Structure formats: structure tokens, C-alpha cells
Amino acid sequence: MEFLPTEVDNEKVYAGFWKRLAAAIIDSLILIPFMVIAHHTQSISIISSMITLVISAVLFSVYVIYFHYRFGATLGKMAIKIKITCPNGSKISLKQALIRSSIDIGFSLLTVIAQLIALKHADPTIYLNAGFTDRAKYILLLYPAWYSLVSTLSQVWWWSEFITLLFNKRKRAIHDFMAGTVVIKKQYENKEITTSLNSITANH
């Protein structure tokens, strides 16, 4: 497998933890208006809350997969000027985009199922009259017992991703190894630069 070099002219090619975290934060901020809309639709009825939950989860998964496949970056990554590519700097495939997000989507699906179960057992009067924070706390109490294991495994996954990213020279998280991808600074995805970088790699 052909990789871009780790540095060019003393500049790091691969995007590290802080850039990726900043991109994730921006993506979260972009979603705030949708969260506000979701909060209001969840206040209508238990059924509308369930529908909103499912639609939101589907839209977020589609957003991540589509933007990674089509542009190599979500809006947050675009703002930070980082991009997901194949190891040689070329565009990733739809399959790679799916694999890269598969574990996160899996945990998201399990969380949605747990929330739907909780909503099914919720008291409509308590749920619909609660504020955003109190509503979240109330629903959490109604989650099925198995969700605690899902939550623990999710935390283990996140920390494993974090540690793996920190301790390899190309700053690849586990999902990058799974999908055969890397995250680079956007200036290095230019075809001419990529060709030059590949030439440098070959010479080394």
C-alpha cells in the first residue's frame, strides 16, 4: 500500500487529533438548529418523538457517509481544511465511507433502539411537560438494562480510537485502518502535489 510521506518541507501531512476534534465540534454546532427543531417536534407527542428520533439518526448517518464519499469531508472538516483520502491521496469509495462509519452507526442504531424502548414506557404527561434537560434525564432512567453494556463498549471504542490515533505516525484511528483511509491536510490532496509526494516516497 502506497502512502503519502508524513512530512513535506517540515510540514505535517496528516491531520492530528486537535484538527479532527475541531471539525467534529463544528459539525455539532451546525446541527444545533436541527436539534432545536427536533426538541419542538418531540414535545408534540410520544409518537412524533419516536419518528423524529429515527429520522434524525438516519439523516446524520447519511450526512456523514455521503459527505465523506462525495467530498472527502463533512462541513466541519471542510472548515478546518482536512480531508479523508486513500493512503496515496486519492478519493475514497462509497464502500470505504460505509466501513469507516460502520461502528459508530452500529452504536447509534443500538442507542436509537434503546431510546425507542424508553419512549414506549414513558409517561406522556411527564415526558411532554419536561424541559430539554429533564426530559433527557427522565428517558435515561427508562433505558433497557442492556444499554449499560452498549454505553461501556462505546466508551471503550472511543478511547481505543483516541489512543490508536495518538500513537501512529500517520494519525490513523481504528476506523481508518478498517476502511483503508487517512486524514490529511487539504492542500495535500491536490493531484500535482500528490504526484510529487508519491515521487518523494518512492525515492525514500
What topology emerges from the helices and strands here?
Elements: E1 7-8, E2 11-12, H1 17-30, H2 32-42, H3 46-71, H4 75-80, E3 82-85, H5 94-120, H6 124-129, H7 132-141, H8 147-166, H9 174-179, E4 182-185, H10 191-203
Antiparallel strand pairs: 1-2, 3-4
Helix pairs in contact: 2-3, 3-5, 5-8
Ends apart, CA distance between termini: 15 Å
Largest sheet: 2 strands, antiparallel
- Mean pLDDT metric: 90
Proportion of helical residues: 55-70%
User: Low-confidence runs (pLDDT<50, min 5 residues)?
Assistant: none
Shape: elongated
Describe this structure in words.
With 204 residues, the protein is mainly alpha-helical. The longest helix has 27 residues. The protein has one domain. It is 68% helix and 6% strand. The protein is built from ten helices and four strands; from the N terminus they run ββααααβαααααβα. The relative contact order is 0.18.
Keyword list:
204 residues; mainly alpha; two-stranded antiparallel ribbon; two-stranded antiparallel sheet; 10 helices; 4 strands; 6% strand; elongated
Write a compact overview of the structure shown:
With 204 residues, this protein is mainly alpha-helical. 68% of the residues lie in helices and 6% in strands.
